[in-house]
Specification:
The complex is a heterotrimer. Helices cover 32% and strands 14% of the residues of chain A. Chain A has helices at 14-25, 65-72, 117-120, 128-135, 145-160, 179-185, 196-207; strands at 8-9, 43-50, 53-60, 91-94, 97-100, 113-115. Chain A has a 5-stranded mixed β-sheet with strand order 3-2-6-4-5. In chain A, helix 4 (128-135) crosses helix 7 (196-207). The radius of gyration of chain A is 18 Å and the shape is globular. Among the domains of chain B are: 2-35 and 444-579, Aldehyde Oxidoreductase, domain 4 (2-Layer Sandwich); 390-442 and 584-728, Aldehyde oxidase/xanthine dehydrogenase, molybdopterin binding domain (Aldehyde Oxidoreductase, domain 4, 2-Layer Sandwich). In chain B, the strands form 7 sheets. In chain B, strands 4-6-2-13-10-11-12 form a 7-stranded mixed β-sheet, with helices on both faces. Chain B has a 5-stranded mixed β-sheet with strand order 1-25-19-20-21. Chain B has a 5-stranded mixed β-sheet with strand order 8-16-15-14-9, sandwiched between helices. Chain B is globular, with a radius of gyration of 27 Å. In chain B, helix 10 packs across helix 11 (376-382), helix 10 runs parallel beside helix 18 (699-711) and helix 13 (472-484) packs parallel to helix 14. The N and C termini of chain B lie far apart (71 Å). Chain C is of the alpha+beta class. Chain C contains 12 helices and 11 strands. Chain C has helices spanning 12-21, 34-39, 75-80, 82-87, 89-97, 101-106, 109-114, 165-171, 190-193, 269-273, 279-286, 298-315, and strands spanning 5-8, 25-28, 47-50, 59-61, 67-70, 175-179, 185-189, 212-218, 225-231, 242-248, 254-259. The longest helix of chain C has 18 residues, at 298-315. The chains are: A alpha+beta, B alpha+beta, C alpha+beta. Chains in contact: A-B, A-C, B-C. Chains A and B meet through strand 1, helix 1, helix 2, helix 3 and helix 4 of A and helix 1, helix 4, strand 21 and helix 17 of B.
Chain lengths: 211, 733, 316
């Protein structure tokens, strides 16, 4: 049992704290040692890449990608807010696209490439979007935050790839980065603390355009 | 430290760190996914097991029997603990409904069993194999139908009066008598309740998601029948609470019982579709408001009555609270009545009382202003009061409601509001503006902290205070930095651990001011210890700055002063009679502009402004975030949020995040917040007050008033959904 | 979620065959609704056949001048396809009005047609629901029915088809192509694809056991103004109270399909004939057989006003 030690938060300690956390999370077990698959047929081997690291897992077929990340790989930056595709806290990038990790089975991602919040950046080496969220206070409790950040990174790519949205005026014109577009496209990420106004400012800054 | 005289000049007034826009010190951890929440504590050498909750399928009745045979023999199952199996457990002090134990079912989805298995998937599958035989009983679920059975609650102050309301109202030249309703609402925080429990002999450690560490510790010990000293609670990060994590919840109790039964550490999270009926909610209200005024706009009579319901032993939603204090008027009365309902437990949600109370009162004020032919801002200003109107000998400690209204009027462009409802159009949108006062009482709660100084000059603060997104980590670091003259980077903050001094915790917008005041007290003690150790006997000339302590011409670094052994001090702020001699409240004004689709009645926010007068703002970044978040919650309350009661079956039907619609990004425009520059020396040495709940109070009414201004349709039943507007919209060509 | 075995299908034919020969088998594609329902044990397959790798993810021209949309084309890709945006704007608009960016990246064309109702009583296994548990009753009719159907409903069930895409497909007269367990293919007009509940609300479409949707075919472009209007309580990420898909020609004739009011996308060619006479005439005809509850009667007014707004937009 991990001794229930004090968790000190300070800027000064960030590097120390993050290093310590990485030691725990960075030792991916190959399958949960306690996984008890009742019959061979209800478990499946799957291999995929997570944050650049190739992993092989033997999983109960029922295991969602979200639970594989959180409970088997201990990458708990990806959050479980609803487990039913209703909140977006579990947003990860699979083969470059944002999806809800709660509504997909891990075994369906054979050969896939998965990026989680831990793969975007780390304390001391934050991704520009992570840094912009800190700068604009685009979060409060922090629980929807990794999902918001993963979603926003992929969302900007979707606009660059000229994927339209519900608020796009002319479907045949190139998609634009506006506040209205960002709001609509980010609506699959609920923030009950209500940091939306700040999140839009953080994303706008990263997008490199004032709107 | 006892705080019983108004604060004078103190080191906080330097404002080198306090009051500065300092980014959250926990920001990098949160944005990088490295902040560890309750369910995420992980030790590679620990064989965690998973618990999955079974909830009651009926709203009221008894459990005849629970058959766990199939569940127990399911793959991976380690243990099944049932409510009728553990017998009666003692109920915690702060809960109304029992969290677990016994054969009685008090509400839908009340926990009646937990299944423990090797994996989450196995526990979830086996939970559905638990078979329960119920004896269902008839319940009461409809507040409107039960209104006449409501009684005067025994506790608190259900009624108040001054002057002769009835006589004054009878003779008032201009009158309003209206009834408003607010629905049951859900906190819907993003992190579901979750706990990991581990026993070591007779000692229990629980990693959980709690706003109030000591309340949880106390009530968990009570429930389990063990000594409080044997219980250790850890909750350093909390994924939102808004009141639903104030009180011990089923996940912690079940994890503890399951871990004891399975002889393994057990993780339990409440599944989202189970949360809204299993936990607490903001109770629905029916509110009748009567206002009488002279033609000059002065209120002569005001009455506010509220009806709400709860389980036996519960309390009322104190929705009349603000009406006792917000506006002048010699003749007044308030009353609250409580019906017994067999719905899940009603309890505190962000700004209990004022949030639903202001939803009603501030529409009534808008309606009254219209009857008087007055601008609603002016009507509010005319009826400002600097004293408690029920007890005129009792002044407010500081009150600048008028400043908020005037500042907002100017900054929002209020003069452009069309006085005639339904007359402003922008394409397919009917456009309107609305205003409401914001009001929430300021509470102060005793709070302790320990402060350590090490030989590196690093200051460490330890308190069981929690950070539920409010920014506690950051403002506590700022406070210690200010008091001890070190940069914020040299302060480490440890929160949410029951081994630390008991704090105010997070709730009732008391946490920011109270917990930093506790840190202030501990820092004063540490300063004294440093001075004493160094032989600086003239306390008046001792200065802590730039990592040094100075007295006269002597300067010594804090690191040196600490020495190898370091220094530590602990203290607790306690509040005297200032809250009795003076009324402490926080004030604001909300201005909104809405568009209502002329064809469909869809209402959408276009602009929002809040102006707040709430004492010293400890950190304008985190304070602003609290306010915009509250404004967002207010938009949900205005337009979409309602736990729908099935009045026959006795439960909240829309019990997930798809069906209970909280605002999404697309609902929220850019939001502006202005803080009036002020301090309140009566509140604490920090001269700060609460802000987090103030931001919610009045928002929904401002939206309602704006919708009226846009459409001419007055809706008095929240939420204001399009079906309530559509029959009043203009004919289409 | 009950335990199940899992296979990655090797071919379309093998997938259909396996589904027909394995008790309790289901196809899984995007999984965004199926897994949601499996977690609640509303769906309890014992075997899942993953059809994601079968190459059904292309959009190709048909000899008739239309487009054949592979069953596995993701909602995002379909909405973003240049040909769809140019010639079938209604379909793009409907897709983009649905769910969230994340869900659209996973959800597929075929799966979207097959998604199940969001009636809250269907979603709560403690409650009676004739669709989930035939014969158990309907708690929604006398309960919370604000979101539910007003037309095409029965005494057994008032649930709605929750989709947006299907509304557009209905207006476009799309055709669903399938392959059966024995390898035979068939083409099912979208109008005939979904079934009304009657006494058997558990049967929602005409697919047979093992039958796999391979494509949805759009006829050649029909021009006109394409409009999709979706009304909901919050501004995004919510199911429709009412949605209207319309293709309006310059002469005022056109096609109208309505979502959120019925167990299937609701379209009535007789009502479309009334379009030149205006919204009121068309909606009166469209909803002639409506039997709303007290809570959802507003949908009748809403449909008429939306139709009026849509026709104004088309003229505009």
């Amino acid at each position: 049992m991990q001794s229930p030690g004090a968790l000190e938060i300070s800027r000064r300690d960030l590097l120390v704290a993050s290093a310590a956390t990485v030691t725990v999370a960075g030792a991916p077990s190959l399958g949960h040692s306690q996984t008890n698959i009742p019959e061979a047929s209800t478990g499946t081997n799957v291999s995929f890449t997570v944050n650049g690291e190739r992993l092989e897992l033997e999983l109960d077929n029922r295991t969602t990608l979200l639970d594989a990340l959180r409970e088997h790989l201990h990458l708990t930056g990806t959050k479980k807010g609803c487990d039913h595709g209703q909140c977006g806290a579990c947003t990860v990038l699979v083969d470059g696209r944002r999806i809800n990790a709660c509504l997909t089975l891990a075994v369906m991602h054979e050969g896939g490439s998965i990026t989680t919040i831990e793969g975007l950046g780390q304390p001391g080496n934050l991704h520009p979007m992570q840094a912009a969220f800190v700068e604009h206070d685009g979060f409060q409790c922090g629980y929807c935050t990794p999902g918001q950040i993963c979603s926003s990174v992929a969302m900007l790519e979707e606009i660059r790839a000229n994927i339209p949205s519900h608020v796009t005026g002319d479907l045949t014109a190139p998609a634009e980065i506006t506040a209205a577009e960002i709001r609509e496209r980010m609506s699959g990420n609920i923030c009950r603390c209500g940091a939306y106004s700040n999140i839009v400012e953080a994303i706008t800054e990263v997008a490199g355009r004032k709107t | 430290m006892r705080f019983d005289t108004p604060a004078t000049t103190n080191p906080i007034d330097q404002l080198k760190f306090v009051g500065q826009p300092i980014h959250r010190i926990d920001g990098p951890l949160k944005t990088a996914g490295k902040a560890v929440y309750a369910y995420e504590w992980h030790d590679p050498n620990t064989p965690y097991a998973y618990g999955y909750i079974v909830g009651s399928a009926i709203a009221k009745g008894r459990i005849r029997s629970i058959d766990v045979t199939a569940a127990k023999s399911a793959p991976g199952v380690l243990a099944v603990v049932t409510a009728d199996g553990v017998g009666e457990l003692k109920k915690g002090k702060y809960n109304t409904a029992k969290l677990f134990g016994g054969a009685e079912v008090q509400h839908y989805h009340q926990a009646i069993a937990v299944v423990v298995a090797e994996t989450f998937e196995e526990a979830r599958a086996a939970a559905s194999l638990v078979k329960v035989d119920y004896a269902e009983e008839k319940g009461v679920f409809d507040l409107a139908a039960a209104r006449d059975t409501a009684v005067k609650p025994e506790d608190g102050e259900p009624d108040s009066a001054a002057g002769d309301f009835h006589a004054a109202f009878e003779t008032a030249p201009v009158k309003l008598d209206q009834t408003y309703t607010t629905p049951d609402q859900s906190h819907a925080m993003m992190e579901p309740h979750a706990s990991i429990a581990a026993w070591s002999g007779d000692e229990l450690t629980v990693w959980t998601s709690s706003q109030m560490i000591d309340w949880w510790r106390t009530d968990l010990a009570t429930t389990l029948g063990i000594d409080k000293e044997k219980v250790h609670i850890m909750s350093p990060f909390i994924g939102g609470g808004f009141g639903v994590k104030l009180f011990l919840r089923a996940d912690a109790v079940l994890a503890a019982l399951a871990a004891r039964e399975a002889k393994r550490p057990v993780k339990v999270a409440l599944p989202r579709p189970f949360l809204m009926n299993n936990t607490t909610h903001r109770p629905a209200t029916i509110q009748r408001i009567r206002i009488g005024a002279g033609r000059d706009g002065r209120i002569t009579a005001i009455a506010h009555e509220s009806w709400s319901g709860d389980l036996p032993g519960g309390g009322p939603e104190v929705a009349v609270q603000q009406t006792r204090l917000l506006y002048a008027g010699e003749n007044r009365m308030t009353a609250m009545r409580l019906a017994t309902l067999d719905l899940p437990e009603g309890n505190a949600m962000r700004a209990p009382g004022e949030a639903p109370g202001m939803m009603a009162l501030e529409i009534a004020i808008d309606e009254m202003a219209e009857r008087l032919g007055l601008d609603p801002v002016e009507f509010r200003i005319i009826n400002d009061t600097q004293v408690d109107p029920e007890k005129p000998e009792r002044p407010f400690s500081h009150r600048d409601l008028v400043g908020c209204l005037r500042t907002g009027t100017e900054r929002f462009g209020w003069k452009d509001r069309s006085k005639r409802p339904g007359s402003r159009r922008d394409g397919d949108w009917l456009v309107g503006m609305g205003v409401a006062s914001a009001f929430r009482n300021n509470l102060v709660v005793p709070s302790g902290a320990r402060v350590r100084l090490d030989r590196g000059g690093v200051v460490t603060v330890e308190t069981d205070m929690t950070d539920i997104g409010t920014g506690s980590y950051t403002i506590i670091a700022q406070t210690a930095a200010e008091m001890l003259g070190v940069p914020v980077d040299n302060v480490a903050v440890s929160l949410g651990d029951s081994r630390f001094p008991v704090s105010s915790g997070s709730g009732g917008q008391f946490g920011g001011n109270s917990s930093t005041a506790g840190v202030y007290a501990a820092c004063v003690k540490l300063r004294e210890a440093v001075a004493q150790k160094l032989g600086f006997n003239n306390a008046d000339d001792v200065i802590f700055a730039d990592g040094e302590v100075r007295s006269g011409d002597r300067r010594i670094t804090l690191a040196e002063a600490a020495g190898d052994e370091g220094l530590a001090a602990e203290d607790r702020i306690e509040f005297g009679k200032l809250t009795e001699t003076h009324q402490q409240s926080t004030f604001g004004a909300h201005f909104v502009e809405v568009g209502v689709d002329v064809a469909t009645g869809e209402a959408r926010l276009r602009r929002m402004l809040a102006v707040c007068a709430a004492g010293r703002i400890l950190n304008p970044i985190t304070a602003r975030s609290q306010v915009i978040g509250a404004m967002t919650m207010g938009v949900g309350a205005a337009l979409s949020e309602e736990l729908v009661v099935d009045k026959a079956r006795g439960f909240f039907v829309n019990h997930d995040l798809a069906a209970y619609e909280v605002p999404v990004h697309a609902d929220i425009p850019h939001q502006e917040v202005i803080f009036l520059d002020e301090t309140d020396p009566m509140s604490s040495p920090m001269k700060a007050k609460g802000i987090a709940e103030l931001g919610l109070c009045g928002v929904a009414a401002a939206v309602a008033n704006a919708i009226y201004n846009a459409t001419g349709v007055r809706v008095r039943d929240y939420p204001i959904t399009l079906d309530k507007l559509i029959n009043g919209l203009p004919e289409l060509s | 979620m009950r335990a199940f075995s899992y296979e990655r299908a090797s071919s379309i034919e093998a997938a259909a065959k396996a589904a027909a020969s394995t008790d309790g088998a289901k196809f899984i594609a995007g999984g965004t609704n199926l897994l949601d329902l499996m977690k609640l044990e509303i769906e309890t397959p014992t075997h899942l056949i993953d059809v994601n790798g079968l190459g059904l993810d292309r959009i190709e021209p048909t000899p008739e001048g239309g487009l054949r949309i592979g069953a596995l084309v993701r909602n995002t890709d379909l909405a973003a396809d240049e040909r769809i945006r140019r010639d079938y704007g209604l379909l793009s608009r409907a897709l983009l009005a649905g769910a969230s960016g994340q869900l659209r990246n996973r959800a597929t064309t075929a799966g979207n047609l097959l998604q199940r109702t969001r009636c809250p009583y269907f979603y709560d296994t403690n409650q009676p629901c004739n669709k989930r548990q035939p014969g158990s009753g309907c708690a929604a009719i006398a309960g919370f029915s604000r979101q539910l159907g007003v037309v095409g409903v029965s005494d057994a069930c008032i649930a709605t088809h929750p989709g947006d895409m299907a509304v557009a497909m209905r207006a476009l007269d799309a055709v669903v192509e399938t392959i059966g367990a024995d390898g035979t293919t068939r083409s099912i007009p979208i109008a005939d694809f979904h079934r009304l509940p009657g006494e058997t609300p558990e049967i929602e479409h005409v697919l047979e056991r093992g039958e796999l949707i391979t494509a949805v075919v759009l006829p050649k472009p029909m021009g006109g103004k394409h409009i999709y209007r979706k009304v909901r309580d919050r501004a995004s990420y919510a199911f429709a109270l009412v949605s209207v898909g319309a293709i309006v020609q310059p002469d005022g004739t056109g096609r109208i399909a309505v979502g959120g009011i019925a167990p299937k996308p609701w379209r009535d060619e007789a009502a479309e004939k009334e379009l030149p006479r205006g919204a009121k005439a068309a909606s009166t005809r469209l909803l002639a057989d409506a039997r709303p509850t007290e809570q959802n009667a507003f949908k009748i007014t809403l449909v008429e006003r939306m139709l009026s707004a849509v026709l104004a937009e088309a003229r505009g």
